[in-house]
Specification:
The chain is an alpha/beta fold and 817 residues long. Helix content is 35%, strand content 23%. The chain contains 26 helices and 37 strands. Helix 14 links the parallel strand 15 and strand 16.
Length: 817
């Protein structure tokens, strides 16, 4: 008897075991997919973890449904990495598996509805909706659930199907479908019989009465004269001017042969010129030498280079070295917007060796990148991607670069695994025994602390490329400006002057406001009522371009009301402002300037980022307003002014990282200014211009900020001196959630004493009709992390044993940021 342990893409703690035959056991390897029955009737895609001969003790092993792969799609490195991830981030291997592979690999079975032929049906006993389904099955042998839904015109058709099953009218069957379809392109060639000159002459003579057909034959030679590539059917139609029918007639006469070739959906179209990698200046060269020295000592290295110091050029040199050794390179970025600029740069150097992998690509394209990396094809030697690119099946990595390593977007919040891509990348580098470089102009406190304690190596570039000066920074006191009535909308006099000057000199401007929409609150000036989301504890944000009030948490939206819902007054006023309002004000203040906006609303499509970034690079846009998407590593040559509309929203945030984040964001936004010869200017508007953090930003004093933050965190026991695990409880009943959270917190206090904070409501305590409560566990550096996690898991086991708490969801967030 042979058995396999499999990973199922569901939150199960243990492996599940299935029975296989001897030939199947010989064929199967870890990392291959198999279809397995699980539960009453569902068939899942599972991943083989181990083949063995030990039967399960508790249950009878079922047989597998079918084998889905001929060779493994997941390698041993990945399985090790996933195991570490599940352990470290306190989730199950199944959740990591589900998150790691493109969804098309996870075939789930679809329920098919068939007519029950072994039973006589009494048509009169059927209700109207049941009869509609019965009638449809007379004409069609199989129906799918969504088809039944459109037949009976209901979203939930389970009650109808349930009744039909009871009346024995239908039977159900589970079937699996492959979702990935390779892209096939059609090509034509001249049939073998007409390759000689005589036969060709005879052919052309016979086609004298069909001028269009003979034109097609001549076009084939015309195309082949230019290039020796296979001829696409579409290209032949275009060159010959003939219709599809003419070409089809030639194929039917066996004069032309048609064949298909599998092609990749994502191809590098550009002409690849062998670019010489730019020579580095002395500061970059010193940094590169330091990096190599640290790599030789097998250390994680942090490249701390001020904005616009040319970090990308250093990365390019390192990638070049890595590729010459025939290894793969992974380049991680926090934001998809960044990939668009970087791809163009890297493709200029490395041509088609660059592949891109992120969530804006559709599932088919992601599978192609996955397969190319697995097969170690040259077109996937360099992979650029957001955090999900970590999961690709690398088997020969030589270098991992984590750019903008301080970014919060590297941390995944939902669903599990709630991993931090930077930390997971360091573990991946360890498994592959390869080099890893973290890069940033404003490193995270943790990484910088690690360089100070000797855990990481450090390389620095303290000067901007071409010795351009750091931008000149100016703080504007909004309190003073408002008192003196010098504000126009949300713009101070000073900011308007500078925008005008920049526009007059033909330069571009970036304005930063970290909130999308028009205004976060619409308020009645009579009774003070403001519309709230019915599902979450937040006010609805006003979006003017759609005349809509929207919830940014659950997506609920309603039309803007003409009058107050509470008192009926029509005196509605907006409070606060978002990017949309800044854009509207600019249109009235600078009607001749071309303004545009870059936030989540304007970058929805697959090429949303690309269009805006390209238009701004080509100077079709004068003023670009945006949220934090703008802050990260983008390189615009003609921006001389950056305006920060309100620094206060960043400073006054209920989070121990608020000051660090504020420093990073403002420094990064400021870094977009003056990246060529002329010195840039940054204007920061604030009601509290004397705040310590704003002073440190204006004097570029990272070290000062680091020392201050370290002192505070040591006092209050926050990272990097302590570890944090945040436990969130989620339930739709308010009282049950409170009791459950209190019960769990008591157990934690017994185990860990005073280092447990909470339970406490987060700032937004209800999302999508689920109430939330948090407990924070602080773990000092000397305390074992794995023992702490085991103790928490033991408490969870007892918690699940209490029947009324079983429905409360417990979510772990390790190294909460």
């Amino acid at each position: 008897m042979y058995f396999i342990d499999v990973i199922l893409p569901i939150p199960l703690e243990k492996f599940f075991t299935y029975r296989v035959s001897e030939t199947e056991a010989e064929f199967l390897e870890p990392g291959m997919r198999v279809g397995v029955p699980f539960g009453k009737s569902k068939v899942y895609t599972a991943l083989v973890f181990k083949v063995h001969r030990t039967p399960p003790e508790i249950y009878e092993a079922k047989e597998i449904h079918r084998i889905l792969d001929e060779s493994p799609i997941v390698n041993a490195f990945q399985l090790k990495h996933w195991k570490w991830m599940a352990q470290y981030y306190m989730c199950s291997l199944g959740e990591v598996f589900r998150s790691a592979v493109p969804s098309a690999f996870l075939l789930e079975s679809e329920t098919l509805i068939l007519r029950n032929t072994s039973h006589e049906v009494d048509e009169l006993a059927l209700k109207d909706d049941e009869f509609l389904v019965f009638e449809a099955l007379q004409h069609q042998s199989i129906l799918k659930v969504h088809e039944v839904s459109s037949i009976v015109d209901k979203k939930n058709v389970l009650p109808v199907l349930h009744r039909l099953l009871q009346k024995k009218v239908i039977v159900l069957k589970e079937e699996m479908y492959e979702q990935y379809k390779p892209k096939l392109e059609r090509f034509v060639k001249l049939s073998h019989a007409y390759r000689s000159e005589e036969s060709l002459e005879t052919l052309l003579e016979s086609l004298t009465r069909a001028p269009q057909q003979s034109q097609v034959i001549l076009s084939i030679f015309q195309i082949q004269g230019v290039s020796k590539k296979p001829i696409k059917t579409k290209e032949l139609e275009k060159v010959s001017g003939a219709s599809k029918a003419v070409i089809k007639a030639l194929i039917e006469k066996d004069i032309l042969e048609e064949y298909t070739i599998k092609v990749d959906r994502v191809n590098y179209e550009g002409e690849h010129e062998e670019y010489d990698v730019k020579s580095l200046n002395e500061y970059q060269q010193i940094a590169l030498d330091d990096i190599h020295r640290n790599f030789n000592d097998k250390r994680v290295t942090l490249l701390y280079g001020v904005t616009s110091s040319g970090k990308t050029e250093v990365y390019v040199q390192l990638i070049e070295n890595c590729i010459q050794l025939g290894k793969q390179a992974l380049y991680l970025l926090p934001e998809i917007a960044l990939t668009t600029q970087l791809i163009t740069r890297l493709q200029a150097y490395f041509g088609e060796k660059v592949s891109v992998y992120h969530s804006k690509y559709n599932v088919q394209e992601r599978i192609e990148v996955w397969n190319n990396v697995l097969a170690q094809k040259s077109k996937a030697q360099i992979v650029i991607g957001a955090r999900s690119a970590l999961f690709l099946p690398f088997s020969n990595v030589g270098l991992i670069i984590v750019d903008e390593e301080h970014e919060g977007s590297f941390k995944q919040f939902d669903p599990a695994p709630r991993y931090h891509a930077r930390d997971a990348a360091i573990v991946l580098a360890n498994l592959h025994d390869c080099n890893i470089l973290l890069g940033s102009a404003t490193p995270s406190i943790e990484s910088f602390y690690n360089t100070r304690s000797g855990k990481y190596g450090l390389a620095e570039i303290k000067r901007r490329y071409g010795n351009v000066l750091m931008p000149e920074m100016e703080l504007v006191d909004l309190k003073e400006q408002t008192r003196k009535k010098r504000m126009k909308g949300h713009f101070s006099e000073r900011l308007l002057e500078e925008i005008q000057t920049a526009l007059d000199e033909g330069e571009q401007v970036i304005l930063f406001q970290n909130r999308r929409g028009y205004a976060p609150i619409v308020e009645c000036s009579v009774c003070g009522h403001s519309p709230q989301c019915p599902n979450c504890d937040v006010s609805l944000t006003y979006h003017q371009y759609k005349k809509q009030l929207r919830c940014h948490y659950c997506g609920y939206h309603m039309a803007l009301q003409e009058s107050c819902q509470a008192c009926g007054s029509s005196a509605l006023d907006t409070k606060g402002f978002g990017t949309e309002q800044v854009e509207k004000e600019l249109e009235t203040l600078f009607p001749e300037a071309k303004t545009s906006r870059m936030d989540l609303d304007t970058t929805r499509g697959k090429h949303g980022y690309e269009k805006i970034i390209t238009a701004f690079e080509q100077q079709e846009i004068d003023i670009l307003v945006g949220t934090q998407m703008l802050t990260k590593g983008l390189d615009f040559r003609n921006v001389s002014l950056v305006g920060i509309m309100s620094a206060d929203s960043l400073l006054n945030f209920p989070d121990y990282r608020a000051h660090e984040r504020c420093f990073q964001l403002l420094t990064q936004v400021a870094g977009r200014a003056g990246r060529t010869k002329k010195r840039g200017k940054v204007i920061i508007q604030s009601y509290n211009p004397y705040h310590q953090i704003l002073k440190q930003v204006t004097t570029h004093d990272y070290e000062g900020m680091f020392k201050e933050q370290m002192y505070e965190r040591e006092q209050y026991k926050y990272p990097p001196k302590n570890r944090i695990i945040r436990i969130t409880f989620k339930h739709k009943e308010y009282n049950r959630l409170n009791e459950a959270a209190e019960w769990f917190a008591r157990g934690l206090r017994k185990a860990f004493g005073g280092s447990v904070l909470g339970p406490e409501y987060p700032p937004v305590a209800r999302i999508r009709n689920q109430y939330l409560k948090n407990v924070m566990v602080k773990i000092p550096m000397g305390q074992s992390l794995s023992k702490t996690k085991s103790a928490i898991k033991r408490i969870e086991k007892s918690f699940d044993a209490v029947s009324q708490y079983r429905s409360v969801r417990v979510i772990y967030n390790v190294d909460h940021v």
